[in-house]
Amino acid sequence: MIMIASSVNRFIDASIIKFIVCAFVGLLLVEVKPSAAQTSRDEVISLTLPFELHLKKSGPVRLAGLLYDKDATALNSYVKAGDKVRVRLLSDQPDRYGRKPAHVYLADKRWLQGELVRDAHATPYPYEDEEDNIRDLYTLERPASHDALKDNIPLNSFAIVKGTVRDVAHVKNTTYLNFGENWRTDFTVKVVKQNHKFFKHFGFNLDTLKGQTLRIRGWVSKQNGPMIEARHPTQIEVIKP
């Protein structure tokens, strides 16, 4: 009886181990399944310049992470009606124009956004909730940057500005990255209190940026000198020597 009980115990132990292993594998599959499910096959019905596609299943989509340039026409060179594509929707909620933000992959597996940026036909920009993959687009880009210490930074328009942070200042819970000697006239980057959480979440310590060379993109306003408000850390690239 002792031998039988021992055999039964070994059987139970083995079964329990098998169950745990299967459950663990199952959990892993559950973890990866949503990522795979985000991408689906689709067909292009028509194009709307500069960066919109009407798809058979997904409907109208907008290429996520690209600065909208009404004069851009390069999309026609990469995709056409009838093409098979894979689509990764970033949201099921359409914008006010009825479009959903998406990443699109061509039949030969090329990333459509990446191709447009690599060939200098599009500029990446991390719109809210479209920050994923934006740094991948930066690696493909060869941007023409404005010098932070020059006076030709365009006001009231989008710009990419490059320079070295001279000082980091905190005033009433707002952080300022000053690039020149005189903050009243020189280029500055502003991060307001409610956006500090994004920088902390990404491990981005603004105080450590003093002396660092940055590339910052966004809309330039005039607040004393030219200024860009950084709402998310993906607007800022640290340029290594």
Tags for this model:
alpha+beta, disordered N terminus, OB fold (Dihydrolipoamide Acetyltransferase, E2P), 5-stranded mixed beta barrel, 241 residues, 8-stranded mixed sheet
What is the structural class? alpha+beta
Largest sheet features: 8 strands, mixed
Helix content: 10-25%
Q: CATH fold name of the largest domain, please?
A: OB fold (Dihydrolipoamide Acetyltransferase, E2P)
Query: How far apart, in Å, are the first and last alpha carbons?
Result: 75 Å
State the name of the first-level CATH class of the largest domain: Mainly Beta
Apparent shape: elongated
Radius of gyration: 25 Å
User: What are the segments in which pLDDT stays under 50 over at least 5 consecutive residues?
Assistant: 1-37
Average pLDDT taken over every residue: 86
Could you explain the architecture of this structure?
- This protein has 241 residues and is of the alpha+beta class.
- The chain has two domains: 89 residues, Beta Barrel (OB fold (Dihydrolipoamide Acetyltransferase, E2P)); 94 residues, OB fold (Dihydrolipoamide Acetyltransferase, E2P), CATH 2.40.50.140.
- The chain is 23% helix and 31% strand.
- The chain has four helices and 13 strands.
- The strands form two sheets. Strands 6, 7, 8, 9, 10, 11, 12 and 13 form an eight-stranded mixed sheet that branches. It has a five-stranded mixed beta barrel with strand order 1-2-3-5-4.
- The longest helix is centred in the first third of the chain and has 36 residues.
- It is elongated, with a radius of gyration of 25 Å.
- The chain starts with a helix and ends with a strand.
